[in-house]
Structures are given as C-alpha cells and as structure tokens.
TrEMBL record:
Boundaries of every EAL domain copy: 131-371
Organism: Viridibacterium curvum
Listed PANTHER family: CYCLIC DI-GMP PHOSPHODIESTERASE PDEF, SIGNALING PROTEIN YKOW
InterPro entries with a match to the protein in the record: Cyclic-di-GMP_PDE-like, EAL_dom, EAL_sf, GAF, GAF-like_dom_sf
Organism domain of life: Bacteria
Protein name: EAL domain-containing protein
SUPFAM superfamilies, alphabetized: EAL domain-like, GAF domain-like
Pfam families linked: EAL (PF00563), GAF_2 (PF13185)
Phylogenetic placement of the source organism: Bacteria, Pseudomonadati, Pseudomonadota, Betaproteobacteria, Rhodocyclales
Length: 371
C-alpha cells in the first residue's frame, strides 16, 4: 500500500493525526477534511467494505471523486474503537493501483493494529484526563487562597529555647493526598511555583506576630527560587528572620543560576537550609554547591538514632562537617527524649519533631513558644 494514516473524527471533520507514505501523498499530518469526503465514514457506516482489493469493483467507491482524482486503486480501513465504545476514527491505508493479493489476513492485521492504536489512545486520554483533574484541583486551591499554614516550633538545644518555626502546608480538602503529593502534582502540571509562592506568602504573614529574635523557616524548590515571582514575595519582609529550606530532591543542572537567583535575598540576610541531609546524594550536592547556613538532618537519620550505631556515626560526621564549614545542624523528626539527648551530645544545634511539638496553628504555636 502506498499511504497509511490514522484519522480522528471530530464533529463534522476528520483530522489526519498520523500519515506515512512510501513516496508522494495527497494528505499530510494535521490536514482536515469534511467527514462526508472520502472513504472513512462510509466504511464505519457500512456503506463501503473494510477490504477493497480493487476499487473498480465497488460502485460506491467509484462514485467518489477521490477514487479517480488521487487515484485510489485499493483500500483497507478499520474503525478505531475505544474502551468506552466510542469510535475515535479510522486506521486506513490505500494503494494507487488495484491489489488482488489483499485478503482477510491483511484485514485481520489491520484490525490488530487498530486495537493497539486504540489501547494507546485510551492511555493518552486517561493521562490527559488525569492531568486536567490535577490542574483543576491545584487551580481551585489557589483560587481559595491556599494552602493553609501550620507551624512547628524549632528548639535550640543549648538552652532549650524555641528560636523559630517551620511553616508547613496543609490542604483542607486534601482528598487523602499528603501535602508532598499536592506539590508534586502542581509541579507536574506546571503550577509548582505558583502553589509554592502562595504558600510562602501565607506563611510570611505570621512573621510580624512572632517574638523578636525568632525566625520563620519556609520551603521552596530550586525551580520556584528561579521563577520570576519569587523575589517579589519578600518585598516588604525582614529577610534576616527568614530561613529558606530547599526541598528539591532532583538533580540541579545549573548551580550558578540558582546562586544568582538567591544572591539578592542572601545579601539582605536570608539564610539557606538544605533539607534531607543524610537521606541521599542530591542534598549533599546542594550543601557543597550552596554553602548553606543550616544543614537539616533527615528524619530517616534521626529516627531511632539512639539505638543505631550507623545513624549515630553519620550524624556525628555531619555535625563535624557543619563545624568545619560554619553551618549549624538542625535535626528534624525527633520523637523521643533519648533521641533528643543523643543529638545534643553529638553537638546538634537545633531540633524539631513531635517530641518537642507537633505542627500547630499560629495562635497555638505562639502560645507554645512564649510559655
């Protein structure tokens, strides 16, 4: 056959989504023609057979201008039927001359290919539908002013005073999804920076109400840091009381660009914290390339650290690394008195976790820090 194509039926037109030809072809990918022109709709309706070895033997085919104008001497066409029963379009091929060797076996192969095409289209449509649903969920959260913010106090181990709070996002209509999942879906549909900046703006409203000499720790990915609206969120903020916690686990391709994006805020006193130290290679690359003021020990390292020599050894090495590089060490996920005491002995500077305080509303967090 000389030309093969997949067409999609949309309203009263069919669109050529894929076209393959051995040489010259009268149609190209993206072309559209009225539905009643040509063979496809007539095959689906049963007015033309799916297998036509010789168009001169089909009166209906010979009545069509395309048969002589192109010309079409032989034709194979099968509908592409989706899993919900809808006809997506057709999978067709034709030759410029009759081909009497075409038979039911060839038609069966066409039908098998059409089934594979239908399966892939079903997957693509499902993916598009899921993407649209995610986009709508994130847009709705943004339209409602979300996400909401809760605050987890951070304790200085040397004198057991609370010196700051980490701002954590919450989604009231979470639909069973964790905050991490919401931000991952936002990034997937291109709304990651918008959702993160919205969370940052909501978090920064707490700063004027906090005790002096305390700070807010906020989260942002490198993609958001390098987005155009990021700096504007800090326009009227005392950035010397802000710690920016970089949350990205993936590879950063251009640390020079990331450092440039951070330079203005760092010159105004903003401090950098690297999350998840001890949990993977990405966080160590961030530490080496960004020289943060704070290194945050991951919960996977602090959990049961008092009963695990390997965790203890790695935490001790990171504490020593912090001393050598001028970075303070913050341990997250502290859940027991024994974990806290061991981290204090190792030389960790600060800690947070359920043993000290769960994430709280702003009012409760302020009362907790004060009393």
């Amino acid at each position: 056959m000389d030309v093969a194509f997949v067409s999609e039926f949309i309203g009263n037109e069919r669109i050529f989504r894929h076209v393959d030809a051995a040489g010259w072809t009268p149609i190209y990918m993206g072309d559209s023609i009225p539905m009643d022109v040509g063979y496809c709709k007539r095959v689906v309706d049963g007015r033309l057979p799916r297998l036509i070895p010789d168009t001169t033997q089909e009166r209906e085919a010979m009545a069509l201008p395309e048969t002589t104008n192109i010309p079409i001497g032989s034709h194979l066409s099968v509908p592409i039927r989706l899993s919900d029963g809808r006809i997506y379009g057709t999978f067709c091929c034709f030759g410029f001359h009759p081909d009497h060797s075409l038979n039911q076996r060839d038609l069966g192969m066409m039908e098998a290919f059409a089934s594979l095409v239908a399966y892939q289209i079903d997957l693509d449509l499902l993916s598009t539908s899921e993407r649209n649903a995610k986009f709508s969920r994130i847009e709705a959260a943004l339209a409602q002013g979300g996400p909401e913010i809760v605050f987890q106090p951070i304790c200085r181990l040397s004198d057991e005073r609370f010196v700051g709070m980490e701002c954590l996002s919450r989604f009231p209509n979470s639909q069973g999804k964790s905050p991490d999942k919401w931000f991952a879906e936002a990034a997937e549909v291109g709304l990651g920076p918008a959702l993160e900046v919205s969370a940052i703006r909501n978090a920064l409203r707490a700063l004027p109400r906090m005790p002096e000499n305390t700070y807010l720790s906020i989260n942002a990915s490198p993609e958001t840091v390098m987005s155009r609206n990021f700096d504007a969120a800090f326009a009227d903020v005392d950035t010397a009381r802000i710690v920016l916690e970089l949350t990205e686990h993936a590879h950063v391709d251009d640390y020079d660009a990331l450092r440039r994006s951070l330079s203005s805020l760092r010159s105004r006193g903003l401090k950098i914290s690297i999350d998840d130290a001890g949990a993977g290679y990405a966080s160590m690359r961030h530490i080496l390339n960004l020289q943060p003021e704070i290194i945050k020990l991951d919960i996977s390292l602090t959990r049961a650290i008092d009963r695990d020599r390997s965790r203890c050894a790695l935490a001790s090495a990171l504490v020593e690394f912090g001393k050598q590089t001028g970075s303070s060490i913050l341990a997250e996920g502290v859940e027991t008195a024994n974990e806290l005491e061991l981290l204090r002995k190792l030389g960790a500077d600060n800690a947070q976790g359920y043993f000290l305080s769960r994430p709280l509303s702003l009012e409760d967090a302020l009362r907790f820090m004060t009393h």
